[in-house]
Write a structure and sequence with these properties.
Elements (H helix, E strand, L loop, with lengths): L1 E9 L13 E3 L2 H13 L3 H6 L10 E9 L2 E4 L5 H13 L4 E6 L7 E6 L5 E5 L4 H7 L1
Parallel strand pairs: 4-5
Antiparallel strand pairs: 1-3, 2-6, 3-7, 5-6
Length: 138
């Protein structure tokens, strides 16, 4: 079993992941911050205004999680939810438990991202990871 610490960007706090047909995507801290920022930008102003900013003013949420998998499949970026749902169905049928892909769209740098679809594969380490605390500790 391989375990990897990755990040997930969102705009709403939660205690456990709800798994959509397109899986749950994890990547680098920069990728997660980009995803959270894009989701914030799509919110109606009333909803955005109701979100509480952190000390740096960021209103998004970065979840730090440990992702476990034993039989990943490397794929190209599927670009949309339907493509990811189809890729997951094909991977599951072949016995894979994770999709790995080169993420060229979220974040400033290319990097590998992971998609999982079984909640047992996700262990939340920090439900509200604060990257500014990482810099202060360094």
């Amino acid at each position: 079993m391989h375990a990897q610490v990755l990040f997930h960007g969102t705009v709403r706090a939660f205690e456990r992941f709800r798994i959509p047909a397109s899986g749950v995507h994890f990547g680098s801290l920069d990728q997660a911050a980009h995803v959270a920022t894009m989701r914030l930008a799509s919110l109606p102003i009333e909803e955005f205004s109701d979100l509480t900013p952190d000390a740096s003013g960021f209103r998004g949420i970065i979840v730090m999680a440990e992702i476990s998998y034993s039989n990943p499949k490397t794929v190209r970026d599927q670009l949309d939810e339907d493509g990811w749902a189809k890729a997951i169905r094909i991977a599951q049928a072949a016995g894979h438990d994770c999709l790995l892909y080169e993420n060229a769209f979220e974040g400033r740098d290319r990097g590998q991202s992971a998609v999982v679809w079984n909640p047992a594969q996700i262990r939340i380490l920090e439900a509200r990871h604060n990257p500014t605390e990482d810099k202060a500790a360094a």
